[in-house]
Amino acid sequence: MDLLVTYDVDTTTREGQRRLRRVAKICEAYGHRVQKSVFEVVCRDTDELRLIATLRATIDHERDSIRLYSLPSGALDEVEHLGVSREIDPRGPIVI
Amino acid sequence: MDLLVTYDVDTTTREGQRRLRRVAKICEAYGHRVQKSVFEVVCRDTDELRLIATLRATIDHERDSIRLYSLPSGALDEVEHLGVSREIDPRGPIVI
């Protein structure tokens, strides 16, 4: 299963900055960062459920926003990219 | 065709801040903003080509990054969302 995770975390408070770091760290354990707040994740359904549960328990539901898009298999290999690129293989090993 | 557009624009210079505003304005003409740097776009193939060409001509290719994900039809209606939501209909009218 290919997933795209995008987030906006409100960083106007120290607690928000902490949440931002936590959200990034959680996503880093599951996928590859392709932009500041965008991760590409290749995982099994059970991993997706765990990822969602962990993110849900981490964010402030009145200030932060996370969106998870389910992509058809292989979609991450066909992204149109403009500008500076992090050369990543969405199926490559995850470095934490 | 459903598209997801995500971007990182380097705003460490005034010129970068201008580019960020321009990129947002371009995307607003094609789709709905769902997060600070994420737009959902429902458009025809010709619109997609025009959008890509306009973005390509706008960004600094050594500092900025834009990614366009092609989604299967209807994928935008099945996004998993956590936290604060902009209640949007990806197929609704675009307000510029």
From TrEMBL, chains A, B:
Family matches, as CDD domains: Cas2_I_II_III
Biological process, per Gene Ontology: defense response to virus; maintenance of CRISPR repeat elements
EC number: 3.1.-.-
Residues the record lists as binding Mg(2+): D8
Cofactor(s) listed in the protein's UniProt record: Mg(2+)
Residues that span the membrane, as ranges: none
UniProt cross-references to SUPFAM superfamilies, sorted A to Z: TTP0101/SSO1404-like (SSF143430)
Alphabetically ordered keywords of this record: Antiviral defense, Endonuclease, Hydrolase, Magnesium, Metal-binding, Nuclease
InterPro entries listed in its UniProt record: CRISPR_associated_Cas2, Virulence_VapD/CRISPR_Cas2
Enzyme class of the recorded protein, top EC level: hydrolase
Highest taxon of source: Bacteria
An example Gene Ontology molecular-function term: RNA endonuclease activity
Primary role: CRISPR (clustered regularly interspaced short palindromic repeat), is an adaptive immune system that provides protection against mobile genetic elements (viruses, transposable elements and conjugative plasmids). CRISPR clusters contain sequences complementary to antecedent mobile elements and target invading nucleic acids. CRISPR clusters are transcribed and processed into CRISPR RNA (crRNA). Functions as a ssRNA-specific endoribonuclease. Involved in the integration of spacer DNA into the CRISPR cassette.
Subunit structure: Homodimer, forms a heterotetramer with a Cas1 homodimer.
Family: Belongs to the CRISPR-associated endoribonuclease Cas2 protein family.
PANTHER family cross-referenced by the UniProt entry: CRISPR-ASSOCIATED ENDORIBONUCLEASE CAS2, CRISPR-ASSOCIATED ENDORIBONUCLEASE CAS2 3
Identification of the protein by name: CRISPR-associated endoribonuclease Cas2
Organism whose genome encodes this protein: Rhodococcus xishaensis
Protein's gene: cas2
